Amino acid sequence: MDSLRLALLVVGVLIFIAIYFYSQWEAKRKGIRDQELERRRKQTLDAYDKDLISSKKPDPVNEEVAKETTVLLESGLRATPQHIEEAQGLRMQEEPLSANLGDFSVLLEEAEKRQSEKKPEQHYSESLSVDESEKNHFVRPKKWFKTKPKPDVPAPPKESSGSNLIIALTVIARGKGVFRGREVVQILEDKGLQFGEMDIFHAYSSGGRPIFSVANIVEPGSFNLGQIDQFSTPGLALFLCLPGPAGGFAAFDGMLEVARLLAGKLSGDIRDDRRNVLTTQAIQQIRERILTFNRACRSLGG
């Protein structure tokens, strides 16, 4: 009976996650469509202005050709080869991590030192060759930067690979126990998560976009802060969607850290999206999925 109950709960959470990210996708698609219409309108007006000017001047107006500028991607912001590879493939889609991760000062100093010792061309080519034997080593951020989200700041446009990768974990109370609402909220707020959209908690980037989210495993998945002292739940769902505002490995490590903290303080077990207890092998498989996804995005992006 407990297995059936857990299965139904997890299925409900997955449906909730799918609805959430579908709404996000619809909003992004509408924004891209509006930007395209605005761009075409400006092109039409510019063409009209040029025709008007040329009709008044006897001499033809030379067309100005915009200079193409190559922006060298900043790599080395993370201490591991995997993070460097990810920066090369997805840096144009990401917001800086230095503002929303709490304890990266040592890593940034090391990265700046390495960057100053290399030429940009060498740095770019070396960062593309990743030693896959080292992909077990990742940096776990110690604490998410406690800053208010900035929903009024529009997210930068990004190129879509046509697909998303959703990583989900659950923290389930042991036996027939439950998690008390006040304790859950205290842990999440201590880690810098903010209560926000859809009445769930988010770890926000410096640009106000969710890096990962924490929801109630019981439908509809929300938290009622007005009755938090009476609130209880048999489990919590943590999930993220890639590509996102932060690097895939850093986002997953941060989410995993919060899941471990919740499990440790609330006497729960961490499970993967198949309801199995999360093992070292399962964590490695998730990181393999992230690495494969990053490479696919990079290849599609040219």
UniProtKB/TrEMBL annotation:
| ZipA C-terminal FtsZ-binding domain ranges (all copies) | 163-290
Residues spanning the membrane: 6-23
Spell out the SMART domains in the cross-references.
ZipA_C (SM00771)
GO biological process annotations for this chain's record? division septum assembly; FtsZ-dependent cytokinesis
Q: Which domain of life is it from?
A: Bacteria
The positions making up the signal sequence are: none
Q: Name one GO cellular component term.
A: cell division site
Return the Basic and acidic residues bias intervals: 112-124
- Name one matching Pfam family: ZipA_C
* Start and end residues of each stretch annotated as Disordered: 112-135
Instruction: Name the membrane topology term.
Output: Single-pass type I membrane protein
Q: Where in the cell is it found?
A: Cell inner membrane
Primary residence: membrane
Keywords, comma-separated and alphabetical = Cell cycle, Cell division, Cell inner membrane, Cell membrane, Membrane, Transmembrane, Transmembrane helix
Family membership noted in the UniProt record = Belongs to the ZipA family.
Q: What is its biological role?
A: Essential cell division protein that stabilizes the FtsZ protofilaments by cross-linking them and that serves as a cytoplasmic membrane anchor for the Z ring. Also required for the recruitment to the septal ring of downstream cell division proteins.
HAMAP family registered for this protein in UniProt: ZipA
Quaternary data: Interacts with FtsZ via their C-terminal domains.
Identify this protein by name: Cell division protein ZipA
Organism of provenance: Candidatus Nitrosoglobus terrae
- Quote the gene name from the UniProt entry: zipA
